[in-house]
Design a protein that fits this description.
Blueprint lengths: L2 E5 L4 E6 L4 H18 L4 H17 L1 H12 L3 H26 L2 E2 L9 E8 L2 E5 L7 H13 L2 E5 L5 H14 L6 E3 L7 H5 L6 E5 L2 H14 L2 E5 L4 E5 L5 H13 L9 E7 L3 H14 L18 H16 L3 E4 L14 E4 L6 H4 L6 E7 L2 H8 L7 E5 L3 H10 L4 E4 L18 E2 L4 H6 L2 E8 L14
Parallel strand pairs: 5-6, 5-8, 6-7, 8-9, 10-11, 10-15, 11-14, 13-14, 15-16
Antiparallel strand pairs: 1-2, 3-4, 4-18, 9-17, 12-13
Helix pairs in contact: 2-4, 2-5, 2-6, 3-4, 3-6, 4-5, 9-10
Length: 470
């Protein structure tokens, strides 16, 4: 298999890497096990110091790391710099808050016949992280920062088109002071994932990626009785109701669809607009989408860079072509530009029907589906009418509608009058085919902890003497 950095703007190979041998992989897992034995016994304050040092290194290296990410997967340089800054902020957030998240939680000792009772959060061991290329630093950091603060260690199987970003992360935590082996990048292909996950020294896995990849990892982990957290695809709805601020909704809609060149699981993809404001919203939305500048991702004037892979662009092209062949209308974009590189223009498609792939599939590029609905109930039915459930947007100034959307939209996150975003302070994850488990906040930190009950009796007292023994 090929592990290579390829510039999506030109299609040119920049650098190739040799995959790890079986012996190198086994040695890496051994180092992870040894590092866990050391890290789990360190003080949480010491780990916080190391994580703060990692944040300082990210700030110092921001420009060079951003250039590397832009070169490897095509995101704009401005977006890449913002991603590095966000990762540094996440490190500082967990350095500050993890001690409280990990503190013992006292329980009602008298109620359970104990002198003392509590819940203790302890790390479980080496965790395999299978991560995607679209946010090559942030996707990893939102696992790594809480995992390392909890005392776990990480084994990173990154996407094969961002090996330099993977190796930077490998070095980052070592430079920050974490024990050797506490976080390692594994330059391996997808076929080697099963070997790592079935190793007895590896205790859990987290994956951000496609639905098939999630099913495969869940199957292997289930056979091994190992914990998993899965963040899979999404086809997020963006619902606009008559009371919405249409100018603001249209402005945010463009960013929500085209952030990261349209390659985000939580990007808004299906724009569901009430018929009373459909024409006005569509006009404003299409005008803004058409005005986006596509070009060199290193330029400050560029809004949308190339897609990350040639196959990814081909998938987007086929989805749009399928819709058009079956009667959909393209309001802007939709045509491949000439020349080298994997470019695709911001595109809006309407008159979609269930016969079209875009109706039920995730479109991983700057392509928006525009839908007209006649009522709140129709909007919710359409919004929930896919197998996904990652994030959802709703735009309304009606307080009653806001509360209804917050309850009725079937997603891991619901954002009202704002773009779906991941924050260290809030849990992040999906429902249905968008996965399970949570990243970020205290919930993400505790996903890979042993939530241990501790019961201490007074001298000769014994647990389990009540009317129920379990």
């Amino acid at each position: 298999m090929t592990i290579a950095s390829v510039n999506p703007a030109t299609g040119q190979v920049i650098k190739t890497f040799d995959p790890m041998t079986d012996e190198q992989l086994d040695a890496a897992i051994g180092r992870a096990a040894a590092a866990f034995a050391a890290l789990r016994r360190t003080d949480v304050g010491q780990r916080a110091g190391w994580l703060t040092a990692a944040a300082d290194l990210l700030d110092a290296d921001r420009d060079s790391v951003a250039r590397m990410m832009t070169m490897e997967m095509g995101k704009t340089y401005a977006a890449a710099r913002a991603e590095v800054t966000k990762c540094a902020a996440a490190c500082r957030f967990y350095a500050e808050h993890a001690p409280a998240y990990l503190a013992d939680e006292p329980a009602d000792a008298e109620a359970v016949g104990a002198r003392r009772a509590l819940v203790r959060y302890q790390p479980i061991g080496p965790v395999l992280a299978v991560m995607p290329w679209n946010f090559p630093l942030w996707q990893v950091m939102r696992f790594a920062a809480p995992a390392l603060m909890a005392g776990n260690v990480g084994l990173l199987k990154h996407a094969s088109n961002v090996p330099q970003t993977a190796l930077f992360l490998d070095e980052l935590f070592r430079r920050a002071g974490f024990p050797v082996g506490a976080f390692q990048a594994l330059l391996i292909g997808s076929r080697e994932v099963e070997r790592v996950l079935t190793d007895d020294r590896v205790r859990a896995a987290t994956l951000t990626g496609s639905e098939p990849a999630g099913r495969a990892v869940a199957r292997i982990a289930g056979q091994q009785l190992k914990k998993t957290v899965l963040e899979l695809g999404g086809s997020d709805p963006f619902v606009v109701m008559p009371s919405a601020d249409l100018d603001r909704a249209a402005e945010v809609a463009v960013v929500a669809r085209c952030q990261n060149n349209g390659q985000s699981c939580i990007a808004a993809k299906r724009f569901i607009v009430h018929t009373d404001v459909f024409d006005a919203f569509a006009e404003a939305f299409v005008a803004r989408m058409s005005a986006l500048r596509v070009g060199d991702p290193m330029s400050e004037q560029t809004d949308v860079g190339p897609l990350a892979t040639e196959n990814g662009r081909a998938d987007v092209q086929e989805q749009v072509r399928d819709a058009v062949d079956k009667g959909a209308r393209v309001l802007c974009g939709g045509e491949l530009p000439p020349g080298d590189g994997w470019w695709y223009p911001p595109t809006v498609v309407t008159d979609l029907t269930p016969r079209m792939r875009m109706w039920s599939e995730e479109v991983f590029g700057p392509v928006a589906g525009l839908y007209r609905v006649g009522s709140y109930d129709e909007a919710v039915e359409l919004a929930n009418g896919t197998s996904f459930g990652l994030g959802a947007n709703a735009w309304t100034t009606d307080p009653a509608e806001q509360e209804r959307f917050a309850t009725d939209l079937d997603a891991g996150s619901v954002f009202i009058n704002g773009m779906t975003t991941s924050y260290p302070q809030l849990p992040f994850g999906g429902v249905r085919n968008s996965g399970y488990g949570r990243e970020l906040s205290s919930h993400g930190l505790r996903e890979f902890c042993n939530v241990k009950t501790v019961w201490i009796g007074a001298g000769g007292a014994a647990a389990g003497t009540g009317s129920h023994s379990e």
